[in-house]
Write a structure and sequence with these properties.
Blueprint (H helix, E strand, L loop, with lengths): L1 H25 L3 E13 L5 E3 L4 E3 L14 E9 L16 E2 L1 E7 L1 E4 L6 H7 L8 E11 L2 E8 L4 E10 L11 E12 L7 E2 L2 E7 L1 H9 L7 E11 L5 E5 L5 E3 L8
Parallel strand pairs: 3-5, 7-13, 11-14
Antiparallel strand pairs: 1-2, 1-4, 2-3, 4-6, 8-9, 9-13, 10-11, 12-13, 14-15, 14-16
Amino acid sequence: MKNFIKSFGVFFLLLFLFTGCLKDDDRKPIYYFYDEPAVVIQMGDNPLIRNESYVFHVPELAGDTVLKAGNLLWTSFIVDLDNDVNYGEDILETYYHTATQFRYQTVDSAKAVIPTDSIAFQSFLSDDYSAPIELSVLYPYAIDSLWFFGFKQNDRSTNYTYELILNPTIEKNSNSYPTLYIRAKQTNASSANSGKARSQDGNVFAFDVADFVKYYNDLNISTNQVRFNLKYKTGVDANGNDIYRSFRSNPISWVFSAVRPE
């Protein structure tokens, strides 16, 4: 009797596992996107966004009167292929997967500064971007020539803006690669009411580094990757000199995709 119960129990377990596999096979996958940078392609009745690799239709943005094409977003959303809606060519020229439960915050951006010489570089380092940065993180994905960073600040009640400046002189102990400096300054807006993107790494900000890529290519460095060093200002010393912290991953390698998602 004990052997029968044991055998029946094993059979029931195998049957449960087998039917569970059938259910999994019948369902299409669900994809979760969290802390995902995106750019708005199209608004109106059929809003479209794209991330680094794909374009998504976001019906929940229909009727949004604030966003416009070109806005950068920090998003979270779900793509459930089992419930995906094919709108067809009558509505959209191309079929895109549908993003649901869409949440977003807007992301500010700035162009990387490329000084002409070391004197101009030093003049930029004496501007009003003087707020210390507690921690800086470079996210491992990009949209076109945009890099996305997370910044933790000592004062989290205030909103900040940032600048990225190239040192045109190759520095000692820089692995023979260019070095870019990140600096911050406070703005008048309160962090709580600014509506700007925040992640677990702090304030989210994007830099357009297209001019830096062109500068790098003009150096004729023999590599298929853009390689560079990053430093960010953490404060000043007793003599009033800026203190910069290097990214632990220096030198950083980056490959820009020449193909945009369509």
